[in-house]
Design a protein that fits this description.
Chain lengths: ~180, ~150
């Protein structure tokens, strides 16, 4: 558990730096450090599938974000109603922690999940699907419907991006302003 | 030593990229094809394959990468992956229900050709994810190019 706590502390510090730092590119790099810490946390918790996926998606997002922010320098507006913001944040944190204290008492302990449906998957996964990797057996066989939905979400996202940033139909700046 | 009008990064980056980009692509294909045996799977492998083309584009400029895999072909691959995944799911109706693992002989466990439909689903998801993310990256790059 010590490794997880160290990684969580590292991720929290990285997230705070990402919010507080003035430069946009430094903020993106700090977010990348948080993602790397999350990937290592998955690895410590013995979930290598998630660790690989988190690592590669983090890299791709980091490349896209750096590509998008490398020429832009947008300073944050730090002035404003800081008293109201701080008070409302403290108030919501207090409410959340109060309810979380009562709610989290009834949850199963960390690392000891309630295995009602998953017990069947773990016991019969190899014999029913023949896949040695239990994660692949679950997401592509027992829970194939969920994977289809996730694939549809990604497909819709790609279609949406390609429809918004396509070249056809885009107006030239200053030409049609008239 | 860099020519003035040559797109992309310096000679060092180009040489390293020429050596490593094939290995990255090969690693992505390995992750996909062994998705039912070892950690990884279609999603992670597809992203690694997309990253190899992104790597090529960052080092050599967009023309070289688009010659290898054009935008319209990436769109075609993505749609093909989606249709392939859906048709594998629909083929389960041969035996009775959606997403049936319809091979009667699933092969020996821990072998490459095993687990019925799961490797085919991995390949379909890999095509979809890889081509889709590459298409998003290319479209964003082209958007910035036309803005300047």
């Amino acid at each position: 558990m010590l490794e997880i706590n160290i990684l969580l502390l590292f991720m929290i510090i990285g997230a705070v730096i990402a919010v507080e730092v003035k430069d946009l590119l430094s903020s993106v790099v700090a977010v990348g450090a948080v993602g790397l810490g999350l990937s290592m946390a998955f690895l410590v918790l013995k979930a290598p599938d998630l660790a690989i996926t988190q690592l590669v998606v983090e890299l791709l997002c980091l490349i896209i974000l750096i590509r998008a922010t490398i020429r832009k320098d947008l300073p944050f507006s730090t002035s404003g109603r800081w008293l109201f913001n701080t008070l409302s944040t403290i108030c919501f944190l207090a409410i959340f922690l109060t309810f979380a204290y009562f709610a989290l008492k009834d949850l199963p302990q960390f690392g000891k999940p309630v295995m009602r449906v998953a017990k069947t998957y773990v016991e019969e996964g190899l014999s029913k699907t023949g896949a040695a990797n239990i994660v692949a057996a679950i997401i592509l066989d027992f829970r194939g419907y969920d994977t289809l939905g996730e694939a549809t979400v990604l497909f819709t996202a790609v279609i949406g991006v390609l429809a918004i940033v396509r070249r056809i139909g885009r107006k030239k700046e200053g030409k049609n302003e008239g | 030593m860099k020519a003035k009008n040559e797109p992309g990064m310096t000679l060092i980056v180009k040489t390293i990229t020429r050596l490593t980009v094939g290995l990255i692509l090969l690693y992505g294909i390995y992750i996909v094809s062994h998705g039912h045996l070892s950690p990884g799977g279609g999603f992670a492998g597809g992203v690694i394959i997309a990253l190899s083309f992104v790597h090529l584009m960052l080092a050599f400029g967009k023309d070289v990468a688009l010659k290898k895999l054009s935008m319209s072909f990436a769109g075609l691959l993505e749609s093909m992956g989606a249709v392939m995944f859906l048709s594998i799911a629909l083929l389960g109706f041969m035996g009775g229900y959606f997403f049936l693992n319809f091979f009667s002989k699933k092969g020996l466990p821990f072998h490459l050709f095993s687990a019925g439909i799961i490797p085919f689903c991995n390949i379909a998801i890999c095509l979809k994810v890889g081509a889709g993310l590459f298409a998003i990256f290319v479209s964003l790059v082209l958007l910035y190019k036309t803005d300047e």
